[in-house]
Write a structure and sequence with these properties.
Blueprint lengths: L3 H29 L6 H26 L3 H22 L6 H34 L1
């Protein structure tokens, strides 16, 4: 039971990494279909998106292994997703359904990561006593 929450947080981060890879694929299709204004900027955005996916995947693996840096990166990831969700619901063309679709997993991710950190702290305390 003690490993369930950290593993759930890691799985959610892994799913988000796959989603970011899908976003890079969508960007590549748009580039191939000449649906971009500046191809050089589009290529740069695709490269940065793939790097972001790799980073989130690394956070997932580290969280699975119980590394604190993975949880820290996961928190930053969730906060960035929440910032994107806020942007999706504001501005000239708001999309509340997209904002909700981004907010729910990000909020769940934050909760799971904080609970995983709490469990790790509790495990460290019990090892120090024994």
């Amino acid at each position: 039971m003690a490993r369930t929450i950290p593993r759930s947080a890691a799985i959610l981060l892994a799913v988000e990494a796959v989603g970011i890879v899908a976003l890079a694929g969508w960007q590549a299709v748009a580039l191939a279909g000449a649906d971009t204004i500046d191809p050089v900027s589009s290529i740069a955005l695709i490269v940065l998106t793939v790097i972001g996916a790799a980073a989130v995947g690394a956070f997932a693996a580290a969280t699975w292994a119980g590394r604190s840096w993975g949880r820290s990166g996961g928190v930053v990831t969730q906060l960035l997703v929440l910032a994107v969700a806020l942007g999706a619901v504001t501005g000239a063309f708001p999309h509340p359904e997209i904002a909700l679709a981004l907010t729910v997993p990000a909020a769940l991710g934050l909760i799971l990561i904080f609970l995983a950190a709490r469990a790790a702290h509790r495990d460290e305390g019990s090892q120090a006593e024994g």
